[in-house]
């Protein structure tokens, strides 16, 4: 047992003094161990002493963070703890291991903190970056000391980045490598020979810091662009990276690196005297830094590792640690994440300020600042409006009083940028942010301001860019207060990739791109529809407002309808146009819901949808709005299958609304689909193709895209004549980030349950399913499940094992329920999300079938458990429509009893509800969630 326990060491130290004296306080314990122990036993005891000291110090830092809440204080305390501990390790090594009584000039050594550690801040799980600074030539003593220190740090399970260099080597590498230059820019002396460090500092200032600042700034901004693209290009991703993401800590670090290099400052507070920040902007910098550090430290402590991504399963924990509560219809986690995104936005504002100042100082190349501009041409001339100028190919203002003289100029500034296709000067944007109080009720009621805003919304130039700039400066939220309520608002679910305001802007941008022909992957969807819409301003405003009431206690579609009725007259809409916008907002989810969870071959489905839509103009607008809405949820969400379902629903409804007439009737569309596939199979004979075509019902020809039809045709052709037809095929769906498994087998009531069970037993989480039956009694089922591996080869091996398991189950060689039980024992549940389960049994949605709609928290094996329960209820599943909205599953089953009749008995319906609800309450009810997405 150690004579001096670590806890007693800390008892006499003040954390407010950064554990100053810990190094000396550990010395008696080190001395006692060295006196008592020898060899391996001594080293083991020394490492254990330091390990206990490190753990106790971190525990003190954690307790102070939770009690007082300062993230920077926690990071500085952990950094100071490392300083003291490294000092104690150094003392042990030079006093008891490699002792030199009279060190020579060549045996000088300085231990220097660099990188993030050099700034004096460390997150609980961060790496320690060390520079061992030595004279021009290293000695055996120096090598041995450095090696001994590193081995002890590694034994303490510290993640150490290290380098051993002379001053000359540091200068040489700093000139050649921008990353090393940045690391050395943050160098901080810890211990050792101070003269050696001073020599290093003087050499760096003389030889490196005076190099071309433009090169350094260019490199840092290019590095930032690359980093942001890796972490996610938008600062509004709902699982942001606190360190590397856009608007995160690394952005603040980059700003300070640039300022430090260009303005020769040592501390952030010096940026005011340098003229880079105002006092208010410095205060904003410090608030952002503190908040992000607080989040990061809590994140590391909560996860027990250097986790930088605010994943869904820790957001609730962090929100609780930070003391957020329910308010204004938002949950604690939603309020926390809204705060986070507002801070990320403010970091973006600070970036713009620094970039503008650097440009004035000419430290920043034009190509870096506005990469999309023409080659540099300096000119300054009056624009078409007297209060504005064109400065360096950007719209700017003539003086700082432009907005005070006429507040409409705030909106006019953005209108001009869009109208002339030019970016806005950072100085103008900075003045806008300082003038937001001018956006009041009078400006919101001003006809000219509203006319200009509507022209921006309907522009065919830079709609999304202009609206986003208005949002980032705070103008959009002030001018449209209901939009301001959803700025930076996240939705705590795994479906939406972006915050509400970002989603709305991307949706409007998508519509603008469709009109301009910039979305070739979806252009065919709307080419024949979009040009025929009579009133495009109704469509644009409906899309801009469709989610504007998110976060309220009332249903956001109905609440949004009231917002539309209030806003439209202000923008000059007629009563009829106002009602059309309100209708679009109220029903913006209707078309995707019908398309993905209803049987589109059932006439009642189409009639029910047509009764809601009522007119062709509404159908067209709702179709285009739905396409843009789903596409703006996230990359790849609007895939070929969903697009085809929407197209089928549009065509079928067009027939009903047209009194039985359509531009393309069903028979013609089926014939066209057959002709398309025939042209893609030139090697088939006419007889063979005709026989094959007769095997599929019209719904198959209308719903399935040609690429899948081709694969199905080859698969079924290979099975011709098989006595026991059974085949599986696996493809990677890179658009959706999913695996596509196709199973062909004789149809039977338990087929879907067996397939779903095989997927679950193999650890595959189903996110979609396409169910078809051929005229000759075969089931053609395609299941989509989430990927588990980054590399295609690994994923295909996994998918092959799952396909093999399903094939064996269908042949009766294995029982999937037993495989599932074995898997369940090895997997622990998680429960970041809570979704109340619901079961609806409805006989009005089909003339032939009872529709059972089940919704609840998605998990592995859910579809198997649901279909298995339906089978136990002696029900036949005619079709299934599987949809996942992130963590929420919404599955619809079209069923009959064993006689082919609907389920009419109230007692039987109640039993169905009860047993399906039990699936969500059973042993697997808290299984893992899916990261998949399907609709909006």
Automatic annotation (TrEMBL):
Reaction(s) catalysed by this chain's protein: [protein-PII]-uridylyl-L-tyrosine + H2O = [protein-PII]-L-tyrosine + UMP + H(+); [protein-PII]-L-tyrosine + UTP = [protein-PII]-uridylyl-L-tyrosine + diphosphate
Activity modulation comment: Uridylyltransferase (UTase) activity is inhibited by glutamine, while glutamine activates uridylyl-removing (UR) activity.
EC number annotated for this UniProt entry: 2.7.7.59, 3.1.4.-
Region (Uridylyltransferase): 1-382
Any one GO molecular function term: phosphoric diester hydrolase activity
Known role: Modifies, by uridylylation and deuridylylation, the PII regulatory proteins (GlnB and homologs), in response to the nitrogen status of the cell that GlnD senses through the glutamine level. Under low glutamine levels, catalyzes the conversion of the PII proteins and UTP to PII-UMP and PPi, while under higher glutamine levels, GlnD hydrolyzes PII-UMP to PII and UMP (deuridylylation). Thus, controls uridylylation state and activity of the PII proteins, and plays an important role in the regulation of nitrogen metabolism.
Protein name, as recorded: Bifunctional uridylyltransferase/uridylyl-removing enzyme
Organism of this sequence: Methylocystis hirsuta
Source lineage: Bacteria, Pseudomonadati, Pseudomonadota, Alphaproteobacteria, Hyphomicrobiales
